[in-house]
Amino acid sequence: MEMRTDVELLNALCNEAPLVMEASGLAFPLSKKRIAHVTGMSVQTVSDYGSGHYNIPIEFWRRLLSYCCDPRIIALLLGDDGRFEVVVHNRLPESEGRDFFKQAVADEGDHYQKMMYVAEMLADGRIDELDRASVQSYHDAYLRHRMTDAALHHAIMRQYRKAQVKESLR
To answer: Taking the complete model, does pTM exceed 0.85, yes or no?
Structure first.
């Protein structure tokens, strides 16, 4: 990912106008007006930031990041060496027994296959109807994948800790 300055990134977000899914389930383009609304600033202030007249405060990016989790904003905030972890706050699915582990591993394989298929399909630089449907299918399954991945991680670590305790008691 090419590292951009904050002004370049703000202008790219406004010019590209990526669609952002809101809680209502509707997608809207990320315009200067929407950025102003989300950050609690005026459209003129957003324009001034985009022209480089003023330094863009970190609070601006924090508010924008809470609205649209664009990886370029994360990269801007963390720099080249930054690492971050996605924390799932929703209740994790049940994660006990062999059936859970088998299903979780199968889901991970399915997610990996979808991801590879979409990556190969998009590599040609053309977007057709099949591409749209495949990307939408990947996107729809992504949250389920993250929840299953988190549950699998917690279940593995819980079982590992139990095994460590049993081993230390011997």
So the answer is: no
